[in-house]
Amino acid sequence: MTGAMYAAIGGLKTHMTNLNVIGNNIANVNTTAYKAQRMIFQESLYTTRRAGSNGTATRGGNTPSQIGYGAQVGSIDLNMSPGTFNPTGNALDCMIDGDGFFLVGDKGLTFDSADDYTKLSLTRAGDFDVDPMGYITDGQGNVVYGFKMVYNPDYDETATEQDILNAKQEGRNIQDELILSTQLVPLRIPLAAAEPTLANGGLNADGSTNWDAGEAVYDILSGYPEANGDSQSTERVNVSLANPDLYDPETGALSFENLNTLYPGAGGAVGADGVPTTITSYDGPIPNLNDKAAGIEGISVNENGAIIGTSRANGKTIVIGYMAIGSVTSPNGVTHTGGPYYKAQEGAGDLTVGIAGGLLGNGTYLNNAVSTATADGDGYTPQLSNLLDQNKEIKIQGSGLEASTADVATEFANMIVTQRGYQANTRIVTVTDSMLEELVNMKR
To answer: Both ends of the chain: CA-CA distance in Å?
Structure first.
């Protein structure tokens, strides 16, 4: 007879857990990009009073007789469907329209393969800003990862239309001075060029200059054949001109010797003054830096996640880079790690990375890898898992944030139902207590 009391106690505990879920949803009704939770009730333990039978030639069968012992928590799920757009007027605030997550983390993380993506945290909260060092960061100080625009080492400003056509057939781009690197890196405003002088190679004898003071200085895409310990690898990394170890401590000029030490295979030619003039085949000027982020105004974010602004030094349009978007097989299966952050752990499936809007073409790999495999099996073939996602159905909406998916009306209705369920279970406890009291009083 007391089994009813234990069933009711199980029901009380389960309804209290559901109330905790509802309370958390209501508390976060105005939390940016909060994903409402849902608890599913599940039947608890059953005991069989009589087993079922299929019957015989002379007697019919019967169904099993079972008694349940209350309810338990079946699951607590996240509703990862997109919330509504909440305009803020902040140019760097972003919302992902569709499935996917922004990727944030500490500085200095490296990604040799797709397996390294799990070093990053996933978030739907796009409250981004520029820190004093020029990094794009979220509200908690984590840097935003993405793909940067870099100098193209294959660029040839004297190329003819036929040269450009021939290069395209060979899989090279000699038309654009700046190209999108697929090395996953922290997004940062390019550093500013120093005042051009004769000493640093910025000022020519005729008075002309090779760069403008304060203009944005991009990284340079360089050959790096040992990127994955594979001498056949054609992957290339960004040579960051912000690395102080690249420069001669006495003259402040970019050191060719230091360059090749830090980036084996970078290559380059040395001018008469000992300053490297090329990296790989790039033959544009390499400005000295003033160690400050370039002045950029009018920063905005487009639907592909590109961070764009205008240089105060020369009025040129600056494309800092593109925010990376991470996608998982099961968005509802990500693990909440606190605050607005998630991890792609067990239950989420594979994590892939790309750019919103299908900007990356088919066959684009991490770290600018290209396949050189031939029909006889020679050459280099990138790992299939390193293929970048196109994310064609995803768009980025700027100047606003994603609102919480917790709906007050729904949560209040669920709270009333939960309260009545809890109340009903307490009645089972009191009725069972009354029946036990009557049993004890039979001796009178």
So the answer is: 21
Residue the block writes with tokens 């309804």: 15
Separation CA 68–CA 371 (nearest Å): 61
Task: Give, in order, the Cα–Cα distances in Å from 125 to each of 140, 320, 321, 397.
Answer: 11, 20, 19, 12
Buried b (16+ CB within 10 A) or exposed e, 316-326: eebbbbbbbbb
* 69 shares its domain with 182: no
Cα–Cα distances (Å) from 25 to 20, 366, 436, in that order, read 9, 38, 40
Nearest to 287 by CA among 221, 188, 217: 217
Residues 340, 416, single domain; the answer is no
Residue 318: φ, ψ to 5°: -110, 120
Calculate ∠ Cα 347-38-80, nearest 5°: 55
* Contact between 22 and 415 (Cβ < 8 Å): yes
Whether 383 and 264 share a structural domain: yes
**10 Å Cβ neighbour count for 90?**
15
Q: Burial code of 221-247, b = ≥16 C-beta within 10 A, e = fewer? A: bbbbeebbeeeebbbbbbbbbeeeebb
Distance of CA 339 to the CA centre of its chain: 15
State which amino acid sits at residue 193.
A
Q: pLDDT of 114-141, one tens digit each?
A: 999 999 999 999 999 999 999 999 999 9
Q: Are residues 95 and 54 in the same domain?
A: no
Q: What letter represents residue 195's amino acid?
A: E
Q: Is the pLDDT higher at 60 or at 412?
A: 412
| Rg, Å, the chain Cα set | 31
Strand partners, 351: 328
- With a CB cutoff of 8 Å and minimum separation 6, the contacts of 364 are 182, 387, 388
Is residue 111 located within the same domain as residue 146?
A: yes
Rounded Cα gap, residues 116 and 258, in angstroms:
28
Whether residues 367 and 416 share a domain: the answer is no
Say if CB 54 and CB 63 are below 8 A apart.
no
Count other Cβ atoms within 10 Å, centred on residue 436.
13
Report phi then psi at 281, rounded to 5.
-115, 5
SS3 content of the chain, % helix, strand, coil (to 5): 20, 30, 45
User: What three-state secondary structure class fits 112?
Assistant: coil
pLDDT at 227 over 50: no
- Provide the 3-class DSSP secondary structure of residue 101: strand
Alpha-carbon gap, residue 280 to 287, rounded angstroms: 17
d(CA 322, CA 146): 6
Residues 239 and 286: their CA atoms lie apart, in Å, by 12
List, for residues 169-225, the tens digit of each pLDDT value. 877 788 998 999 999 999 999 989 888 888 777 888 898 988 889 999 898 887 654
